[in-house]
Each structure stands twice: as structure tokens, then as C-alpha cells.
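User: Batch of two.

Assistant: Item 1 of 2:
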Amino acid sequence: MATVTHNGGSRVTTRQKCYDVLRRMLICGQIAPGSRLPEIEWSERLDVHRGAVREAMVLLEHDGLLRAGEKGGFFAPLLGDFEIEEIIEARSVLETGALKLIAQRKLAKEAFQPMLELCETMQRLHDADIELGFCEADFMFHQALVALSGNSRLIQMHSHSAQLIFNLSVVDTLDVIRQKRSATLTDHREIAGMVVSGDIPSATMRLENHLETACKEFL
């Protein structure tokens, strides 16, 4: 197993690796709600020192993506652990704020390519009925949108803000799931197109409606 040296940079890097992996799995519903995350087990799975896993889990608790048990340990949250409306409101403020900054930057067309490519990735995953992959690409689209702002503080705030965990919604039929995926993809394509064309007011309105729809699905 790889060990963490006393070097501060190595410890931060290892902790960040644990944080990134666990956060992505939690957000994309790859860890069952309510399940415990044993530190020893995850240190072995991630091939890192137990201390780095513990530090990452403390950060994830701070972000609202894990909850601490009364008798110790960390657990994946249940739907009731989230204030859905507050999360959506926070995301709306951050992401629409990013749009305002994007408008000021006068970016070259090439800068939008990662965001546009994620739409194509979502299309392929939707066609293949790969739900978890689609959810992860959905999350990455919003990250790519905020990254275009060029504001490192805003990007960090968005990255560490509590996100919706996709598999906490009510159980839907496959047809309903496909309809929701299709609607999400349509929203993303429209938002991306408006951003690329410089129509920030329309992109802002579309993004707000998109997030409001996501909120209603969880309430």
C-alpha cells in the first residue's frame, strides 16, 4: 500500500485523491444511501493511508455529502438529510453568477468545447442506458460551465457545495428515467448553445428553470 510521507504536499495530494473519488461516487449514487464507509476498507480500496481517508471524510461531512454517526464513523446520507431547496438555491446563485463572469471574458469558441463535448457524452450514455455514467456527465457539465467563469474561488465554492445525490430520488420506471434524461440533455444543449452565442440573459433563465425542475423532482 502507498504510504503518506510527512511532506505536506504529499498528504494534501493523497487526501485530495480520496476526496475526489468518494465525492464523485456519492454524487453519482454509487454508494448506497445510509451505508457506512469504514475507513480501513476504503483505505485499502483506494490504496492510501487511513489518515488520508479520514481527512477526506471529514471534508465530505463539512460539504454535506457524508454524515457522522452518533457512535462514530461516517455514513452516506439519506434524502431526509438534505435541505433540497437550499441546495438548489445555492447552486443557482453560483451557476448564474458564473454566467455573468463568462459574459465579461469574451472567450474564444474553443473554450466552450469541453462543455459541448459533455453534451455529446451525455447523449451516448443516454442512448446506451448507462444511468450512473449519465449522472456523472450531468454533474461534470455544470462543473465545466462554472469553470468557464475563470474565477478560481467560485469554482472552488461550486466544487465544495453540497450537490444532489442522484439515486436518492423516488424510484421511477425505466421509461420515466429515460424521459428525465432526455429533458436534462435538451436543457443542457440549449443552455450551452445560448452561452456560446453570448445570449447570457436567456441562458440564465433557462438554467434557473432547469434547476427549479430538478428541485421539484426531489420534493
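Item 2 of 2:
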Amino acid sequence: MMLEATHLILLLITSAVSLPPSPDYVGDSSVENLPKFNTRSQKLEVAEGRDVRIPCSLNRDLKLPMIIKKEENDYGGGELLFVGNEKLANDRYSMLNGEMTITGVRRADAGAFLCYYQGIEGLKLRHFVEVQYPPTVHSITSLEQRVSKGASVTLECTAEGNPMPKILWSREGGRLPSGAESEEGLSMTLEGVDRHVEGRYTCTAANGVGEPASVTMNIAVEYPPEIITEKEIVRTGENDRVELVCIVHARPAGKVVWTKDGAPVPHENRAKEHHGGHRHLLTLDPVTKKDFGVYQCRASNSLGEASKDISVTDEPNMPHFTSNSNSAYETSYTLTWDAESYYPITQYRLMYRKSKGEDSSDTISDEWIDLTEASKGSKGVGDRHSLRHTITGLQPATDYEAAVQVKNKFQWGTRAKFNFSTRKEVMSLQTTSSLSSVTFTSSMAVVATVVAVCLVF
């Protein structure tokens, strides 16, 4: 019976001639005499799942049933919702005092709602409901991408949500290859890739509603082996324990082989290989004289191979100078340097001469002054030793060059050259004084000439 009554009401409403004229408008249907809605047209933004109120009350009673209709949109056709207080649709819709409430808003509730009175053209109010909902994100490209070194790779994703989400790309554990913390856009292209761009990249969509959504993609770069050595020269001595280390990066993983002086390393109890991740070790324990030489770490995979040499020696290294190149004194200079040697430094050879500028050569000739001395005990930390020597009897404001090499109990190391100069300010002062003296003498001569001329006249 209720359904039949509802249909009857609808028929009465939709037929303009079936409604009697309102007593409020008898003899006067001008717009200025119409009641007014208490609100203007509004855009009502509401988050999905929340409630929204659509105000349609008048400033005075009209004694006619108000009709509320949802207009046609992408979600469906138009639909009558209320005639007066009579509900014609969803139970989530309710009416009280000219205000319609939608409980638990859904995306399909978005659209335009029209409040009007049948037969009164000038009395209409339209509200727009915009349903906001959190973002969702999907990857367009594969979640796992394998690419060859030097090629390009594109990561792409798409997002939905209201408002339209903003998409940001980030890299797990660090910055993007561009150096930025993040970049905005639907896609990101990496060109000329190498192993440094490998990792997990995240596409995150956010629109300020709910929590951001994200999807993560992984890039794996395939490339031939690349090798880094911790030390290219390892200085050691007999009975010491040393580790030769090479770090190998490769995809597919590389096979690592150690050789010495071009031949496979004999796997005795003293020489042991250790492989752990990218770090590959060859341990010599204890070191013997026959262990000195050049070792090679060679890695290979299906894409190529690479190798690095590591020298094991008991020779001291080339000195590293630590003194300032300009002396604080006119006739002396203190030269300081560090040298690395497993064994104590027993002797050093220091040679010096006046600098010849561009004519200088690496040849040590008779014109060099040789100051070879036994080391009086060098200060050091570990295998690094610090030495010093003061050269006297030098000429002021003069440039010199020096050559230094050190010796341990077994052999001499490689020579290193250094340029220094004695104090130059004194020469500058003397030159200035000489110029002042010349100027003064010239001035006096001019004065004397002028006086003589005056006496003549």
C-alpha cells in the first residue's frame, strides 16, 4: 500500500496541472514575493565515509512539498530522493527541517542535488557534492626490471583519488641518481645506467586525504666485473700476516681467481682465499720472502672480465713531504717528511741544489749536495715513520730543490723531489732601501744644482 501511495504522489508532482496553486501566490507570482532559500548554491566537499548535510530550507513556509532530486552524472541517471518528508530512495538519506543528510558518503553520491518546488520556476537551489577519497596507485611498468649497463630504463605508475594525487618518486636508502631527494611525475627515466643506479624505487601518491599509497619497483643492472682494491701496494715483512683485498661488483656474479707473477697462487696452508659478498681476500700468514711480488685479482662473468694488480713488498715507500715550502729563515730550512715501511727506517739520503726552473731534470748529478745520514730513530704510528732534517748554509731569498729517499734494513725506496725557498722578505727590504737611497741621492743632486745656478746669477 505504501509503494502505491508513493507512486501516486510522484504522479501528482510530475504533472504540473495536477498541483493546485499555492495560497501564498494567489494573485501574485512575482519573483520578489517568492520565499528565499536560507543558503546559496554550495560546493560541499566531504571525505568518503563521512556524513554531509545538504541545506534546502526556506526563510518562510510555502505549504508545498519540496522536491530533492539528484541529477544525472557519470555514476547514473537522475533520481528523485524526497517529496516533502517522504523518502523515495536510499536509507542513507534522511530529511529534517529542510536539510537532507547523506550518511556514510560513497563515491557514487558525488554530483549535483536540486531542491525545487513543482510549478514554481524561480524557486530552485542546486548544491554540488564532491566526494574526496584517498589515493590508490598502480605500476604500469614491471615491478622487476633488468637492464644492461649503458641502456635506459623507465619506471611508470598511475594513481587515482580525489583530489587528483601528486606522484613523487624516491629511492630506498638514498637520493635519486639525479641527486634529488625526490622527483614529481607519472614516470621517471634513467639513461646510461650503471651499477650505481641499482636499487628499489618507490612511486608514492598523496592528495591529503587519508594515507598516501605507494608501489615499489626494483632495478637490476647487468654488467661485466668492476674491481676496486683497498691497497695497490702492501708493505710488509717476513713473519707478518697480510690480507690482499679486492672488491668485485658484477651481475651476474663474477668468479674470482688470484694469481702471483702470472701463475696461480699455490694453495698452501699460508695462503687462503676468502669470499664474502663483494669482498674477496687472499691471506698470507706468515709472510715469507718468496711471497713478495705482484698478485692479480681477476674476476669474470658472462659479460666480460677485469683484473687489478696488488704489489706485496718489503720496500719503503716514496717519502711524503709535510713541511711548508717557504722557510721562516734566511739561511736555513727544515725539511720534514713521512715514509711508510714495515721495517724501521735505518737511513735516509737527502740531496739539494739551487733550483734550475724549467731546466730541472730527474737526473742526480755531481752538482747536488748529498746529505746521506743514518736515521736517528723515526717517530711513527704503525708502519708510517716521520723524519726531519735541517739544511744550513743556504743563501737568502733563493729557490732550491731537494730529493729524498729512505732505506730500511733491506733496501732503498723510491726517491721523491720537493721545492723550497729561503726567506725572501729581507731581499725585498734591502732592495727597497737601495731604491730609497738612490732616490734621496738624486734629489740632493737636483737641489745642489739649483743652488749653484742661483749663485751664478
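The two ends are 150 Å apart (CA to CA).
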